[in-house]
Amino acid sequence: MPKISAMTGNNAVAEAMRQINPDVVAAYPITPQTELAEEFADFVANGRVKTEYIPVESEHSAMSACIGASTAGARTMTATSSAGFALMWEMLPIAAGLRTPVIMTVVNRAFSAPLNIHCSHDDSMGGRDTGWVQIYSENAQEVYDNLIQAVPIGEDKSIRLPVMVCMDGFIISHAVERVELLDDEVIKKFVGEYQPANYLLNVTSPITIGACALPDYYTEHKRQHSEALMNSKDKILEIADKFYKISGRKYGLFESYRLDDAEYAIVIINSGAGVAKMVVNELREKGIKAGVLKPRIFRPFPANEIRDALKHLKAIAVLDRVDSFGTGSTPTFTEVKAALYGITKPPLMINYVYGLGGRDIRLEDIHKVYQKLIEISKTGKIDKVFDYLTVRE
Amino acid sequence: MKKLMNRKEMPIGSVIDKPGSSMEYETGGWRNYKPVRDTEKCSNCLICWIYCPEGCIKVKDGKITDIDLKYCKGCGICAEECPVKGKAIQMVEEKKEG
Predict the structure, then answer these.
(1) ipTM
(2) Structure pTM?
């Protein structure tokens, strides 16, 4: 029987990790991920999991240890935030290039400077092109569910890639919510045993990991990797379907909220989507056809599916909790805009940066965005494509 | 030239899935200068054999028999370390084809 519990996002991740019971966890504490790493360390110390916990001296070592453990044939997990993510950077494309199914929770936190421990999507969005699968989660329930699904996604024979599962630092990681937990046995069966295609500790079939590939071979390796990530969408949906059967909770590549007949939509990732959905409900009561598209799988980016979900709209605002400095745009905006390239009469599109360093996004802020969408739809004119929301000018 | 594998033929994750495959990579192709040994001057002290980073100095019964040019990169360490006066190994520029 599923158990209903009051948990923070960090509690929910630690609990999912306990149920997954990975062979190896190598992690280093960093706010706001610390509680998660500590709680899992308790599970190890109290013998509630069989995991080998490596308390490494840095995040660079954490990811290095994860890659080593994964290539040795172990199911491997870690978690980090912000500067920790940045310190792992060198190893992130290596984890992906070696096709190790390492699973990492990213508790999204802003980069310094100025020093800030609260939520921006600087870390994971900065790492969006490191070749990992990226899954974003609106709340504690979603991060729990996504982490469990990340195991079969990363380990699938046709994918074999590391997966990062992201949630908003503090807003989700430290807020207590209702979380529905599945039974240990159900999770155990769902994730199954890790069956690596090849691994270093297999003495009967020796392999070399991390060899060099010169200009005559490097391109083919990247092409293989690119194809595996691009082709993983169907499998991700198949796994979501299997997860639905055990949980009753449906997941897609993204969530469409009252979007089918909508005229105006906001595209927004993670916890901010909750605020946007609430505003949509208020607007709908007034007869305004508003909707939300909340990306879940950001890598691979489901461009065609998002195009089909958005193409009928009059106007779209893409909101990101991160700036892509110097582009006058944000990561999700460039992707969404590119996805809509080439269609006849594309929707009008505007872009906002919001909520940096943990600044709250409030209902009235989202209302302003929808009002702007209505206004530009009427006039057909966009005065500013890119702007900051809630900033003191 | 050896036929290169396409992406579908290659193992996943840049793994090398069989041992000893470095033998297939003939690093002799990197060479601009090749070591030429003067068998008259050579004292068979085997200093070059110790220093050669590629194991290209072939020895039988305590005597140098050959230098394996299939793998010799032409680094010149053997010639540099040769203690014989006037050097028993000289680096000679390869004749470029075409």
Answers:
(1) 0.81
(2) 0.93
